Amino acid sequence: MGLTPKDLDFATTATPEKMKQMFEKENIRMINAKGEKHGTITPRINDKENFEITTLRVDVVTDGRHAEVQYTTDWFLDANRRDLTINSMFLGLDGSVYDYFYGYEDLQNRRIVFVGDPVTRIQEDYLRILRYFRLMTAMKRELQHNSVRPIVNMRRFNESVMKVIQ
């Protein structure tokens, strides 16, 4: 899209414990963050910049906002639990793009598309509704009926919005 990313998120097959061991061995400071129970470790490099590094995972149980996770080494399984196709791509260290759900094509066409069933994705985490609309606005796109209709038609849409607001 011709934009410079504001932050980079990293994914790894290393568990949080393994990452902590590696960073401690190299005397790299880690920021205490709430994300560790979901597999995220935040090292601070050169006392200048924080990087979020998250262990590949699957969501075992979700309640509409939080998930119980299980770590995996399967990149496809991690991509499959994500909310949007453009958020399910991985860039390998060699520059290869791993794109299981055509997120690159969606990005090129400025489409925001849920991975799999939109209702399921939203019920896993209601904040995904806001994320969808934020990204649509950022891309200056018109709302697409394929993705918006499930949001509007959700039987408990009003309850979902209230959970997001709370």
From TrEMBL:
Residue span(s) of domain Poly A polymerase head: 1-112
Key words of the record: Magnesium, Metal-binding, Nucleotidyltransferase, RNA-binding, Transferase, tRNA processing
Q: Which Pfam families match?
A: PolyA_pol (PF01743)
One of the GO biological process terms: mitochondrial tRNA 3'-end processing
Q: Does the keyword Nucleotidyltransferase apply?
A: yes
Domain of life, per UniProt, equals: Eukaryota
Q: Which SUPFAM superfamilies match?
A: Nucleotidyltransferase, Poly A polymerase C-terminal region-like
**GO CC annotations, alphabetized:** mitochondrion
Q: Which cofactor does it need?
A: Mg(2+)
CDD domains for this protein: NT_ClassII-CCAase
Citing just one GO molecular function, the answer is:
nucleotidyltransferase activity
Q: Return the similarity comment.
A: Belongs to the tRNA nucleotidyltransferase/poly(A) polymerase family.
Record PANTHER family: CCA TRNA NUCLEOTIDYLTRANSFERASE 1, MITOCHONDRIAL
Which named protein is this?
Poly A polymerase head domain-containing protein
